Amino acid sequence: MVRILFFILLVLALALGFAWLADRPGELSLIWQGQLIEMSLMRAATILISLFAAILIVVWLIRTLWLSPHTVTRYFRARKRDRGYQALSTGLIAAGAGDATLARKMAARTRGLISADQEPLIHLLEAQTALIEGKYDDARKKFEVMADDPETRELGLRGLYLEAKRLGANEAARQYAERAAEKAPHLSWATLATLDQRSQAGQWDEAIRLLDQSRTANVLDKKEANRKKAVLLTARATGKLEADPKAARDDALAALKLDDRLVPAALVAAKALFREDNLRKGASVLERIWKQDPHPELARLYVRARGGDSAVDRLKRAKRLETLRGNNAVSLTTVAEAALEARELALARTKAEAAARLAPSESIFLLIADIEEADTGDEGRIRHWMAQALRSPRDPAWTADGVTSPTWLPVSPVSGRLDAFEWKEPPSPLAGTTEEGRVSVDEAIRSLPPVAPEQQVLVREAPVTPKAEESRPVLEAERPIPTPTPITVPERKESAAPPSKSEENVAEDEEAAPFFGRPPDDPGVRDRAVEDGNKASFRLF
Fold first, then answer.
1. What does pTM read for this prediction?
2. Each residue of 494-507: b (16+ CB within 10 Å) or e?
3. Contacts of range 315-318, beta carbons closer than 8 Å, 24 or more positions apart
4. Residues of the chain with pLDDT under 70
């Protein structure tokens, strides 16, 4: 384009020059070797320009003839190179399609048309062809050659890394990944592989440092990088919880700032705060996470945060969680478990059945069986609820790569992937459901067998005082032994008057009050413990 524009400008300049000479005619006289030569100025300018053009043409012809051998050679070389690149392209496509025969044929043709020093992709084609043919040793040699070439270093290291992973040589794979991450920090596969390797080894400080470098290089998305750093901080905090609760608290709180829905971080932070006797702040951390996503481990830690509390106090804290997130299966189950320990069986049964209606699961029906054992002791009704538990979906658990763990782990023990564990229902072919996709709780209640006559004796027992409950035997011993002669038991008279409205309001105010307001050594807590005695709490299943 520039040449065309220059040619047009040159022609315009010549035209303007001839027009200017035509408007100003003149004569040109020249005496050369005794002869007088006269001509017009226009004719002289025309002859001069024509002579200059002829000289340029002669020079061009001489240059063309002089360089013609090189031009011909370059033409055939370019044609050969084009054929080589065409063969290389066809070979790579064949290798990607899995056609080993065509890939090997194109690799040989490319070798004959193009030098490997000029085009490093020939090594890639040969390595891919060797992999397709199962010649892994040849492929590894080609990847090593590529790793030594600065232009193909990253490609060769990735090939060596994948081969090491295929053979199970984790140490070699780690070295290749670290070498690639050191030479090219912008490679996401190298960064993630090195991060997983350091996480498997428990090198949390090095993993966090590498993750910060990758965030600076914009290798990972900001949200993904924050999540992974929160997991690493939580893992480091878990390791420091026993020896250094303060450092564990700082790491866990920093993890919650990066991801405010990370339940393991909230658990570690709350445990560290509880060990520092900061019950109020630890409870606030659990409550904040509980409002977003109720979790059974959060409820368990919240209810039993302070040792030495009575079952009634634990029931109050469970009700507190229900007020924070109502109409939730986890909240209802937590209240039901606490009510069972506090021997408020009617409340426990109501909450457990409500939880089963919202989200039927194995543990909820086992809890109802526990309540049935404590309430009636009827074996038929207990087996009925246990049968419902067998037909119900399994409870959610920390699951990663098909493996469940009783506690959260930062790294999968199967694949070694960071942040692989999720709180979800583990796969199981034994979990049965109804036609609607879930166990019908109402149908289970309607089909509940009545209480056996010999078990109705337990319902009419005399109330157990706190002092007598300490020496109370287990329920199996409470069941009467059937004898030939009938046994009559007098009915228990209800001596306690129903609570008045004012007492109910006072009880509701106490339940809605914030917990962990008084330390365990408060006189009020000690007095309450003396009044309640050491109430026995138990689970039968």
1. 0.65
2. eeeeeeeeeeeeee
3. 315/339, 315/341, 315/342, 315/344, 316/510, 316/511, 316/515, 317/515
4. 428-439, 453-541
